[in-house]
Amino acid sequence: MREQLALLPYLLAAHVRLTLGALLLGAAVAVPAGVLVSRAPRLEGLVLGLAGVIQTVPALALLAVMVPLLSSAGLSGIGFLPAFLGLVLYSLLPILRNTVTGLAGIDPAVREAAEGVGMTPAQRLRMVELPLALPVIMAGLRTATVWSVGMATLSTPVGAPSLGNYIFSGLQTRNDAAVLVGCAAAAFLALGLDGLLRMLARGWSERRPALIVAGGAIFVAMGAASLAGVSPAGAARPLRIGAKTFTEQYILAEVLARQIDRKTGAPAEVLASLGSTVAFDALARGEVDAYVEYTGTIRSTLMHRSGAGGGRAAVLAEVSAWLRESQGVRVACSLGFENTYAFALRRARADELGVRRLSELAPKAPRLRAAADYEFWSRSEWTDVRRVYGLDFAERRVMDPSLLYAAVAGDQVDVITAYSSDGRVSAYDLIALEDDREAIPPYDAVVLVSRSLADRRPDVVRALTDLEGTIDAERMRAMNVAVDRDGKSPAAVAEEFLAR
Amino acid sequence: MIEVQDLTRRYGERLAVDGVSFRVEAGELLALVGASGSGKTTTLKMINRLVTPTAGRVRVEGEDAATIGTHRLRRRIGYVFQGVGLFPHMSVGENVAVPLRLAGWKEPRAQARVTELLALVELDPQLAGRRPSDLSGGQQQRVGVARALAVSPRVMLLDEPFGALDPLTRDRLQQSFRELRRRLDLTAVLVTHDMAEALLLADRVGVMNAGRLVQVGTPAELLRAPADDHVALLLSTPRRQARRLDELLGGGG
Lengths: 500, 253
Description:
Chain A is of the alpha/beta class. Chain A is built from 23 helices and 10 strands. The two termini of chain A are about 25 Å apart.
């Protein structure tokens, strides 16, 4: 818990920076747009409709879509920018809609009075219309604020640190305290910002300048404090190690970062909980310097090849060559274990059905319910398994990987796709079925480094190459169990491993 | 001086105002009377271009209203609104000061002028800090008059200014206004549907019917020689009411 709380100032500052920045820009766009729309009723349907469409895009999808969009525009596709722009887009609708509503609600007699005393349209807007619509606009801003604070937790997978780091990593590593800290901090932040805005609105409507000054001062102080940790532009950024969204990745990222620090003294930070392809894209563009990927994943999702590929060594060679030639990415080392997909059942269920191999599962499968992570059913591995074994389930569900094991242990589904190095396979006493006809390609864990790192810091690449073959499947499972079951932090487990 | 020539306003097929012409001399008050929909308010609003005329010309103090520039024109003309038209988010003092701010007055001078104006319309200057909603209807309308007088306009337009007030308040306000406009020598057009008010306040009365100005003249002229039955009927209303009232009271006492 103490370890979790130590991260709070950093993550909270990042969260506040994202939220306040997005709200500021959102309001700066939405209020003028609302004014424009209220002056040109023909635009109203179009503009409100557009903002409404943005709103119907699920928040996570909106953030995810920013990544390729920004990359194709030549901008930084991960980190602050995509999260920030996604939040800005999301905050537009409530502010815009309330600006339009607030302006439309003004008594026409008051508007005529403003004209009658000789105000120009700009004066009328500034002296009469905006002040009268302000309470409604503020209500919209408050809605946007609460939404943005919540949505900012989803910026973790696109590489922007936020309170979501607690939630994503906490869910993966079964660290309830972390999830709780993240949720509570986000809730308090939302309530706090909402309260501040309410205070500003009250100060305005009750004409209490003291309230406005106090509220404004707190906002400025929060903004300044959240910016305090940001290194000035141009300063050399630390090396960045990526991690996808599961325990093993968190541990390995810490191992990489610490190994670099031990051998070269170069500071390295971990960018945790990146989306799967987000991590690779970021590496290919040099925004992330290194992360651990699996040969089978590269082969199927990036190279779009199917089939088993002819063994671990052959696949490793094939993948390395492709990475070097078409992506400019280098494989620093192969860590020594595989994390392959494996179909897993409860031991009791496996005994009852009498299956230990995939070929034995096939005849029983049409009566079984199966669940997999987000990608498996659309990956070539599934196509291959299906073809080779003639496997077909009664029901195929998709679940968050963190919930799969609990689902099968609790008998909510019969079969899940587990990861072979996952500590939870033994922690939940599951049986991982043998791929007896070798339909699933090998998934060797390899350390990938970006071209720019290879050019810039050969010493860092050498430090990573030293990890070649140092982690076998058993050790990886043990480290995963230490986090998932025993509640140790990935950093502590990584430290223990390197101190051996 | 206000001069209106062949003023016309068309809404689609409907002629709201149809070729109205009149002249209001300096220091004179013209009352426009007529039933609802007769075009009197539209005529008034065309003078300061709150409504743009379809045809015709307006001259204010010798200048063509169409060429002055809408905002400058309106700032030169005091306007008292039907239903008061105060800004609800501003204090009484701020409301009165709006025309001063628009004219670029600086703070201490504007403050002094607001106090002076509130006194002029017989309001306690202490009320300056209150919101319009804290005031009675009569007080609000006095604030409206004070605001219209802020930059000492020579010309004033009044759109049924006393219509929504209770009879006692209306009577008092009418008295105050009559003195005020004599003292300030205002040129004014007053729109009202209350014939008695028109006869009491106006130097001349214009009767409107279905968008046309039927007759303009002093109360005495209109009473002596009404142009048609409609004018005669309209003019006789206050008297008829007074007579009926007399009978009622006489009969009872």
